[in-house]
Specification:
Blueprint: H1 2-11, H2 18-26, H3 31-35, H4 45-75, E1 79-82, H5 90-93, E2 101-106, E3 115-119, H6 126-141, E4 147-150, H7 156-166, E5 171-174, H8 189-195, E6 199-203, H9 213-225, E7 229-232, H10 240-250, E8 254-257, H11 268-275, E9 280-281, H12 285-292, H13 314-326, E10 328-330, H14 331-338, H15 342-354, E11 358-361, E12 365-368
Parallel strand pairs: 3-4, 3-7, 4-5, 5-6, 7-8, 8-9
Antiparallel strand pairs: 1-2, 2-6, 10-12, 11-12
Helix pairs in contact: 1-4, 6-7, 9-10, 14-15
Length: 370
């Protein structure tokens, strides 16, 4: 509870950016020690002064605000996920600008082997709707059940959430306001309610924070960072979907896009992403599964019996060999060392952690379980 409370209190300090606090937490400092003013000795003097000033001027109110938020979330079944806690999305934690704290209400795990962010224009065409329907239906038919993440906005977002629900796929919506507010847009409240039982709602904002224009842009980094891959269904030459795609590229995630006719306004963004080699062209769920390295099972193929003591794959052996010599390494360092794209490495690391082969260490590092 102390980690949760003090991380939340740090996020409420005035005059200190969350990215700066996150850097301190990644370096091994505890939230409780930081809130008590115990700063690393090698900290830049100017920043140390500003940090202590922030504690002196807003520390008490920040702690009170954090206690109020903890009480509210406990009463409304909202999970508080401080950075590096067990429930915090591991893939998102790899991102340099990850939120310091997340708030989650739902039933789906945010840490799964297969995850996919699906984004696109708010002015979806009938073709966009067909693509969302075929994507979710085919993923279900292939017996792949990735966590489908989007932003609950008009157009592609709400369509893919609804198609995920219809096909039994877990789906999470990332909101641009606190979980104590009426879902925006209000027209999607019923879908949001249904998602609670087959996914959930996620936010980085305190429960009473109302939506603002800049919040919709900021949430794109969560949509891009929480999943191993991002698919753009339809997009004009400008828009939030393109921002999300480029963020996903910056995070070394797989970026994919459905192509369209050259004169279609809402295919222009996808076609440009493909032309610039930001995104890989895809036409089906099978394409996506192949790019992501997911094993797609045909409906007629019986489930394979798992070996009691499975042998390591060559990729897993390479990860273990590197960690045996370096003791610990970040995901990016491992991707370079084992020559594996990040969008394939991150799910592999997650799977190895679930099997008890790796452990996730402070600072975003991985180490062998000895």
């Amino acid at each position: 509870m102390s980690q949760l409370l003090y991380t939340l209190a740090l996020s409420c300090l005035k005059g200190i950016g969350q990215a700066q606090i996150l850097t301190l937490l990644r370096s091994g400092s505890s939230a409780e020690a930081l809130f008590a003013g115990q700063l690393p000795s090698d900290l830049v003097p100017d920043f140390a002064h500003r940090f202590r000033t922030a504690l002196a001027t807003s520390g008490t109110s920040a702690l009170d605000r954090a206690k109020t938020e903890v009480d509210y979330c406990a009463q409304h079944d909202i999970q508080i996920l401080p950075f590096a806690s067990a429930g915090y999305p591991m893939l998102l934690a790899e991102c340099a600008d990850a939120p310091l704290v997340l708030f989650y209400k739902g039933t789906a795990s945010l840490n799964v082997a297969h995850s996919l962010s699906v984004v696109g224009t708010r002015k979806m065409t009938p073709m966009g709707g067909d693509l969302c329907r075929h994507l979710c239906g085919d993923l279900a038919n292939l017996r792949l059940a990735p966590l489908i993440v989007s932003g609950l906005a008009y157009g592609v977002d709400i369509c893919v959430h609804r198609e995920a629900l219809a096909n039994g796929l877990p789906t999470v919506g990332v909101l641009a306001h606190g979980l104590g507010q009426t879902v925006y847009p209000s027209a999607h409240r019923q879908t949001a309610s249904e998602m609670m039982a087959q996914g959930g709602l996620l936010s980085e904002y305190l429960h009473d924070v109302t939506p603002k224009r800049e919040f919709f842009v900021r949430r794109n980094r969560i949509v891009a960072g929480i999943s191993a891959g991002t698919v753009v269904v339809e997009s004009a030459s400008k828009g939030g979907a393109l921002i999300t795609a480029r963020l996903a590229q910056d995070y070394n995630r797989a970026v994919m896009a459905y192509p369209g006719r050259v004169f279609d306004a809402y295919s222009a963004g996808c076609n440009e992403l493909i032309r610039q080699q930001v995104a890989t062209l895809v036409t089906s769920a099978t394409d996506i599964a192949e790019i992501m390295g997911w094993h797609a099972i045909s409906p007629s193929e019986p489930p394979r019996q798992q070996e009691l003591f499975p042998l390591l794959t060559p990729e897993e052996e390479a990860v273990c060999a590197h960690l045996a010599t370096t003791d610990q390494a970040t995901a990016n360092a491992l991707a370079l060392a084992v020559n594996l794209p990040a969008h394939q490495l991150l799910p592999l690391l997650f799977d190895m952690e679930l099997r008890g082969l790796l452990r996730h260490l402070p600072g975003g590092n991985y180490g062998l379980v000895r």
